[in-house]
Amino acid sequence: MNWIIQDSNNQHKNWVSIFNAARKAGDNACFVNIDDKYTLEKIDEYSLVIGGDDFIDMCLNNRFLSVGVFRDEEFFNTDSYLKNFTKNYLNYDSRVVCFGSVKRMEDNLKYFIRPYGDSKEFDGGVYSIIDFVNVYSYLKDDYKISMASPKVIDAEWRFVVVNKRIISASTYVGDKQINDSITTFVYSCLNGVVTPEAFVIDVALTDGKLKIIECNTINSSNFYDCNIELIVLAMDKLMKKRLIN
């Protein structure tokens, strides 16, 4: 398989690890600078793509690269999580509003605020309204965000799912290790849910309960301490299946 990976001058650990694992698996892999639009346009081999949101946007313009992108706007958004995970969704009390509406809010409460969809125009976090509006004043008035009450998080884990199977997982907040009960929780939450063929899903421990935080596109996600080699092999297999179909 062929991999096209955004060049970070070896600064992005995740991208470098994917590159090395792909080469170890016998795949072709190359780094391409985000400014090198010409190279991206000329690639004529079906490829898996890894990089930031802007890089992925550019790759979608080339049919040989778009086949290796696993975005799904209908799945990666707050409404989808509320529908699919209900009370198992961490921010089950979310309301979706536009930035223009937030600017007109006058209360002094703090909210957990995150982007509505998968594109990360800003990092989710706890903000007062005035601080959020001041920091992210560049957002357009029709930009959709999600607001919920703040939650106390004791631990967070990231799971990589390919073809409905957990390939690898990693703790990224706290020191609690992953166990069978957490894995079972993920599978139970995904049972019957229509998802992309590959994605990552985050789980939190809050008030002694497991909750789904969010899901993200695999092409632009951080894998933390997941087993990169297993992820590469699973993505190779998935891509070959996708090309056959």
Characterise the protein shown here.
The protein is α+β, with helices and mostly antiparallel strands. It has helices at 13-24, 37-42, 53-59, 63-66, 78-85, 99-103, 129-135, 180-190, 228-244, and strands at residues 2-6, 28-32, 47-50, 95-98, 110-115, 125-128, 144-148, 155-162, 165-173, 198-206, 209-217. It is built from nine helices and eleven strands. The chain has a four-stranded antiparallel beta sheet. The protein has a four-stranded antiparallel beta sheet with strand order 9-8-10-11, with helices on both faces. It has a three-stranded parallel beta sheet with strand order 2-1-3, with helices on both faces. Helix 1 links the parallel strand 1 and strand 2. Helix 1 packs across helix 9 (228-244). The longest helix has 17 residues, at 228-244.
SS element count, helices: 9
- What amount of the residues lies in strands? 25-35%
**What's the helical proportion of residues?**
25-40%
Shape: globular
- Strand line-up in the sheet with most strands: 4-7-5-6
Cα(first) to Cα(last) distance is 16 Å
For the largest beta-sheet, the strand count, sense and barrel status come to:
4 strands, antiparallel
Order of helices and strands: EHEHEHHHEHEEHEEEHEEH
Radius of gyration: 19 Å
Which secondary-structure class do the elements indicate?
alpha+beta
Mean pLDDT: 96
Low-confidence parts: none
Query: What's the total count of β strands?
Result: 11
